[in-house]
Design a protein that fits this description.
- By secondary structure, the chain is an alpha/beta fold.
- The strands form five sheets. It has a ten-stranded mixed beta sheet, with helices on both faces. Strands 1-2 form a two-stranded antiparallel ribbon. The protein has a two-stranded antiparallel sheet with strand order 3-4.
- Helix 27 links the parallel strand 12 (785-790) and strand 13 (815-822).
- Helix 9 (211-243) packs antiparallel against helix 17 and helix 19 (511-539) runs antiparallel to helix 20 (553-570).
Length: 982
């Protein structure tokens, strides 16, 4: 059998080409049973040789060659039954399916199946990522360690122990460490729930909480990283100037320790020196960042090794401090020092942190949380480089949590060691106590501190630009398009921008002022990660299957709560400012940003909420106080619209008029004539066009396209099945077929009557719009009155529609008039009083007018309105008489006594026809007399009389709407939609 032929007896549906699976297809090779006479090694060798090169042609043919370009020996000898066992189910070759695209590449284009007339071949290759890929150690663990072991540990940690004491310092480390550890667990769960692109926490938060939340928190986290870079640079410069005072350009500031028996001078560098050196260091680090991932990987160990060596020197110095005291008040490991330093000693300090009774800064536990928390941040350093990792699902959890545990353990041990090795005075005055006690070379500590802070700054300047570039590449905010980069390129423009922010913060020069700002942005990001995991874990959607199993929604909620608590503990003012900044970005993204559907957790939450709400609504009747109109709008019921126009332009305007303040749902439906199998693709295209139109008209609603043999069958299916529970449409809205006689569309009367009868059977209200072309939009203000001709009890639907019209800007200047049609022998005044009382109880303001009209008699009162109505009445009666004569002639020709209309028996009672015509004439003349200049007229819809031909009913309706420019013909249903009670 040739590759292009089909198996006998199997006929695929038109529009798709099926390709048989050939004998050497990879799927067949893997699924064929092992030949007993062939050894396993020989079989593997044969399969490998056949799988060296696979190319999919335009017709699905498989062209398989060996590595030497020769065809295999058993090219065509396999059994045909075995060859077609996949094709029988309409499957393409597994080679084609598995080779379509890499599921880890979100933006990879999905190649379409070859169709008739396509030429060439499609060769599928796995997309290639960056050449440089990092493992767990260099990609996650080392960057996290470098970010965590930063300036706070070396030049602030001993001071924190002296101020808070050992006990509260342990609480401080445990409190902050628990926050980052819980965040690391949440980060691990989200990062292992699928392939992860660049952007780190922004990517995770954005895909979990939506683009608006992701961009707002992502930009704040970017600012936090940029400011943190300045924090680390200032720490490195301050340490350098402490170690080498001669390098200072300006004179040193001398601060004396007050309230001590022997005041000692304390030297600290000036802010100008910090600014100048900080700018130089920042620019130097930017050159390293411009070198790319390769350069950073080479430099990172050079920064980390001295750091680890310096930590070892600190521990060695503490252990030998008791024998070889490096400085006064260094006691060595002493229980007495441990006891003396156990409790806290919060006091006033000057700007340099030196205790001073006249100082401006008072420290407490909350303030120390803000100062110390940057020492535990940095857990996102690995995830920030997610695009450069070999295996994000393995590296991020292991590397992040390992770095968190190691550093937290180090901090807890260091609290005891610092508290036991020196007096409180030394702890509070010696900002570089770590260098003072280090052994054997104290100068090595300065080198370690400088390289540690520079390494952390390097990681910040590396992660922040990549984070900004990832936000820009998602194309949510057009203002960020300047920072876009192609795959595999370095974010040079984003690096320049990050360096500019970093230099600006360096110019500030105050380390203690920058630290709380950084802390707020970090905590905001950590809270977003925890909330993302909490939402995803709580909803537990089928797509939530993280490889990291050690997580629970309660832990994520606890982590998010700790983040918020820490933010307010540090400073409620900084918290309010950071939340306000994130809210402003969120608002800006929601207005200016482009829509992005990432399948975020909020969509899942909305789905779960909708299901719960739908179940809670039940299937019982909705109380009138909770009733909302849910219109089912027939977009193209009578045709005569251009093919590229999915709906009449004024229908959406009218649908919005049926909602109060835009609340409510509309269902826009269009019926496509034809066979479903042939028109399914056309229906999908039409549904997209209709949905686009609805969005353009700012109408809350959904679009549906139904394929049916004809309009009547399609609508009958819609009215029975559309909607769920109490969210089914309750009002059918359509345009009045004014064109049926002018265009000679003889099929419209039957369809029109069938739709109305189906609505009556299905208990749906009906609103028919006459004069839709002249319906005003939201900017066309109307004046005059809204006139209601209230003839039958309709549950208050007509009254409610008039009130809804008044809530719209175009009709808010109008007033309502209610015309009650009464028999001549009825008490008009009593009826008027009853209606006024009823409207008052309904909280509706309207003028009530009672019209006495005897339905069985016509009194010609003269006037132009009556003459117009009489002219239309005479023409309608003449057409009906002609139609009855034709029916009788056809009945005589068929030799039957039954009159037939549209294929159905018709019981024509000419006296009853005259009655309908007279009643309609009287109502039309009354409308023309009282409401000719009204903004809109609402009148009750008469039901189609039984056994009357549809043609007669159309004549009645045409006479009713004659010469009325804008009319709503309304029929309620067997439910009240208004209530008198509160």
């Amino acid at each position: 059998m040739n590759n292009g032929e089909q198996e006998d007896g199997f006929h695929p549906s038109p529009g798709r080409k099926y390709r048989p699976v050939v004998d050497n297809d990879r799927a067949v090779l893997e699924m064929l049973p092992m030949d007993p006479g062939l050894s396993s090694s020989a079989s593997r060798a044969t399969n490998q040789s056949n799988l060296m090169k696979i190319k999919v042609g335009s017709q699905g043919n498989m062209d398989t060659r060996t590595s030497h370009g020769q065809a295999p020996a058993n090219g065509g000898g396999n059994d045909l039954t075995q060859e077609h066992k996949l094709e029988l189910f309409g499957f393409d070759s597994l080679v084609s399916i598995l080779g379509l695209r890499s599921m880890t590449e979100e933006e990879a284009a999905v190649p379409s199946s070859p169709r008739d007339g396509d030429d060439g071949s499609l060769t599928y290759e796995r997309p290639r990522g960056n050449d440089v890929k990092l493992g767990t150690m260099m990609g996650v663990f080392v960057p996290c360690i470098q970010n965590i072991l930063g300036i706070i540990y070396y030049i602030r940690f001993s001071w924190i122990v002296g101020m808070a004491g050992i006990g509260e310092s342990l609480m401080l480390v445990a409190f902050c460490g628990l926050c980052t550890f819980l965040t690391g667990i949440s980060l691990s769960a989200i990062a292992t729930n699928g392939a992860m692109k660049g952007g780190g926490p922004y990517y995770l938060i954005g895909r979990a909480l939506g683009p608006e939340v992701g961009v707002s928190i992502g930009l704040c986290f970017f600012l936090g990283n940029a400011v943190a870079g300045a924090l680390y640079v200032l720490g490195a410069v301050e340490t350098f100037l402490k170690a080498v005072p001669a390098a200072a350009i300006f004179s040193e500031t001398i601060t004396r320790v007050n309230n001590t028996a022997t005041p000692e001078p304390i030297q600290s560098p000036t802010s100008h020196d910090l600014q100048i050196y900080g700018i130089v260091v920042t620019i130097s680090l930017c050159f390293i960042v411009f070198g790319g991932v390769k350069m950073i990987n080479r430099v990172a160990p050079a920064f980390l090794i001295p750091v680890l060596f310096s930590v070892c020197c600190i521990f060695l110095g503490i252990s030998v401090a008791g024998k070889d005291k490096p400085a006064p008040e260094i006691t060595g490991l002493s229980l007495e020092s441990l006891k003396n330093n156990w409790s806290s000693d919060y006091q006033l300090t000057n700007d340099a942190g030196i205790p001073d009774p006249e100082g401006k800064n008072y420290w407490n536990f909350n303030a120390l949380v803000g100062l110390f928390f940057p020492a535990v941040t940095g857990i996102m350093a690995g995830s920030n480089r997610s695009a450069s990792l070999k295996d994000t699902q393995r590296s991020i959890p292991i590397g992040t949590l390992a770095a968190t545990v190691v550093t937290t353990t180090l901090y807890l041990g260091t609290v005891f060691l610092f508290g036991a090795v020196a007096t409180r005075k030394r702890l509070l005055t010696d900002r570089l106590l770590a260098a003072t006690i280090a052994w054997p070379f104290p100068a090595i500590i300065y080198v370690g501190i400088i390289l540690s802070t520079l390494g952390a700054a390097l990681q910040s300047l590396t992660g922040a630009p990549r984070l900004l570039a990832a936000i820009a590449n998602d194309d949510i905010l057009p203002i960020l398009n300047y920072f876009k980069i192609a795959d595999g390129q370095e974010p040079h423009i984003a690096t320049f921008f990050t360096a500019f922010i970093c230099i600006g913060c360096v110019i500030i020069g105050n380390l203690d002022l920058i630290s709380p700002t950084t802390t707020m942005f970090y905590l905001l990001c950590y809270a977003g990660v925890n909330l993302s995991c909490f939402l995803l874990d709580l909803l537990d959607a089928p797509s939530w299957r993280p490889r990291w199993k050690f997580h629970h929604w309660s832990l994520s909620l606890l982590g998010a709560s700790l983040c918020i608590v820490i933010m307010f503990l540090i400073s409620w003012s900084f918290t309010v400012v950071s939340l306000a900044l994130a809210s402003l970005i969120y608002y800006y993204v929601s207005i200016k940003g482009k829509a992005g559907d990432w399948g975020d957790g909020f969509k899942s939450a909305y789905f779960q909420l909708a299901l719960r709400s739908l179940r809670s609504l039940g299937a019982d009747q909705v109380h009138p106080k909770n009733w909302y109109p849910i219109p089912l709008i027939l977009c193209r019921p009578w045709g005569k619209l251009p093919e590229n126009v999915p709906c009449h332009p004024k229908l959406a305007d009218f649908a919005n008029c049926m909602k109060k303040k835009g609340r409510g749902m509309s269902i826009f439906v269009s019926i496509l004539d034809g066979d479903y199998h042939e028109c399914a693709e056309d229906a999908k295209v039409a549904c997209k066009q209709l949905a686009t139109y609805i969005d353009y008209k700012n109408c809350e609603g959904v679009a549906e396209i139904v394929v049916a043999p004809n309009m009547s069958e399609g609508f009958r299916g819609i009215v029975q099945t559309m909607g769920l529970g109490n969210l089914k449409p309750n009002i059918v809205v359509m345009r009045y077929p004014e064109i049926w006689r002018r265009e000679k569309l003889t099929e419209i009367p039957a369809t029109f009557v069938e739709i109305i009868n189906d609505c009556i059977v299905a208990n749906k209200a009906v609103v028919i719009v006459k004069g839709l072309d002249e319906w005003p939009n939201e900017y066309q203000r109307q004046y005059g009155t809204i006139d209601l001709y209230w003839i039958v009890r309709d549950g208050g639907l007509m009254l409610l529609l008039s009130q809804l019209l008044l809530t719209k800007e175009s009709f808010e200047s109008c007033k309502i008039q209610v015309f009650c049609i009464a028999e001549e022998d009825s008490d008009a005044e009593a009826l008027k009083a009853d209606v006024k009382k009823f409207l008052y109880d309904l909280r509706m303001q309207a003028e009530v007018i009672v019209i006495s009209m005897k339905t069985w008699d016509v009194q010609v009162e003269g006037g132009p309105q009556q003459e117009e109505s009489l002219g239309a009445f005479t023409a309608a009666r003449h057409r009906i008489s002609t139609y009855i004569s034709q029916m009788k002639e056809r009945a005589q020709a068929d030799e039957t006594t039954t009159l037939m209309a549209d294929g159905k028996p018709a019981d024509v009672n000419e006296q009853q026809v005259e009655k309908f015509l007279y009643t309609t004439l009287k109502l039309n003349s009354s409308i023309l007399r009282y409401s000719r200049m009204s903004a809109v007229v609402l009148v009750s819809l008469p039901p189609p009389p039984l056994s009357h031909p549809p043609y007669f009913y159309m004549e009645y309706m045409d006479l009713l709407v004659e010469n009325v420019p804008r009319m709503l013909i309304v029929r309620g249903y067997r439910r009240d939609v208004v209530t008198l009670f509160t």
